Amino acid sequence: MGVGLQTRRVAIVGGVRVPFARANGVYAELGNQELLTAALRALVTRFGLEGQSVGEVAAGAVIKHANQWNLARESALGAGLKADTPAVDLQRACATSLEATLTVANKIALGHIDSAIAGGADSISDPPVAYPRSFQRLLLRSYRARGFAARAAPWLALRPRDFKPVLPGSVDARTGLSLGASAESMARAWAISREEQDRFALDSHRKAAAAYAAGFYTDLVQDLRGLSQDESMRADLGLESLALLRPAFAADGAATLTAGNSAPLSDGASALLLASEAWARERGLPVRAFLTFSKCVAVDYVSGRDGLLMGSVYAVPALLKEAGLALPDIDFVELHEAFAGQVLSTLAAWEDPAFCRDRLGLPEPLGALDRSRLNVKGGSIALGHPSAATGTRMVATLAKILDESRARRGLVAISTAGGMGLAAILER
């Protein structure tokens, strides 16, 4: 989406998600398809779409079993939509459902479809467990062989180590560092203290708890398996308890990232309904906001020039430039809280004259973001982070904030594994 094309406005009707649960807990027996189907079914019910068709369903998961290649379609078939609704799987790490949102939004804007659902799900509790490559090769050699003796021969080389399971991990293939270790380096580079990170995490929990208490999440979160709100959120959290936690991603005395100031491993799913304005109005559905601009960037984290999770640092200024806006023109910001240190480093970079000049090509700093406008209903640290579900969670939240506050504009941004950043602007 952008300037120069004859496009339609893309309406955000609303979103629904299941409560995000701690990994290996309430949803331990549920996989991606069960979680995504639950979120889609809740959305279908909420907006009266039972037995109806929508232009497309786009969704995905970051951690998937091989047999979940058709996750979006299978989940859509179980959600109560008419069977002629097409669906597509896609993936962009933590920005998967934001990417899904933008993908179908562009089709609506261009008039290819009139309505769509975007979403995502992830189950840390149901990871694909694979055997080592050595066992795979043994099986294939046996399968390809001709005759019993030839097929039996590879099995003579079988060793106990061939049965050692291989689990999916969050280690970057290029640097060998986990996301947490990368964020630790980022926090050190920007001199973000442990206390600053703990205070940011505490604010996330307090804002989330206040939003639940005020009923903000009532129409955004659908009960599942006896869970009615996000399991990781703690209204009684204090700085003292956060300060007791040990560093999680480095062992030296300078380490600052802990389980308390990082987004927890979570299971969950979310979904979002988008449409042309006419399609929504014809059905008497609300229009909470319009999706107007988006931008995706990639950064050079492999050489060490940029931090792995600095994508938003670059994506937001580029997005604002294309939209002809400045940071003060944005009323509310939803910035994904993978780690408190990562968010605070991002904010520091936007205020740094040298970085903005030399790296972002700006004549002056992007500016200081008013913290009272940032993640005002809590963020991923408090709510949880099922990777592929976070984007549509953030968009649905921001659209409701704009609608209820009568504010003009909001911005959502996510930094992802692989050194990418995805950002979008919503307008009321």
Helix content: 25-40%
Number of strands: 10
Q: Helix/strand-derived class?
A: alpha/beta
Q: What percentage of the residues does DSSP assign to strands (E)?
A: 15-25%
Q: Summarize the main sheet.
A: 10 strands, mixed
Question: Which residue ranges are poorly predicted, with pLDDT under 50 across at least 5 consecutive positions?
Answer: none
Q: What is the CATH class of the domain at 179-215 and 292-427? A: Alpha Beta
Output the number of helix runs: 14
CATH architecture of the domain at 179-215 and 292-427: 3-Layer(aba) Sandwich
CATH homologous superfamily of the domain at 179-215 and 292-427, by name?
Answer: Thiolase/Chalcone synthase
How confident is the prediction overall: mean pLDDT?
Answer: 95
C-alpha Rg, in Å?
22 Å
List the helices and strands and how they pair.
Layout: E1 10-17, E2 21-22, H1 32-46, E3 57-60, H2 71-77, E4 87-89, H3 96-109, E5 115-123, H4 133-144, H5 148-152, H6 179-189, H7 194-213, H8 239-243, E6 266-276, H9 277-282, E7 289-298, H10 311-323, E8 332-335, H11 340-351, H12 353-358, H13 380-383, H14 390-405, E9 409-416, E10 420-427
Parallel strand pairs: 3-4, 3-5, 8-9
Antiparallel strand pairs: 1-6, 1-7, 2-6, 5-6, 7-10, 9-10
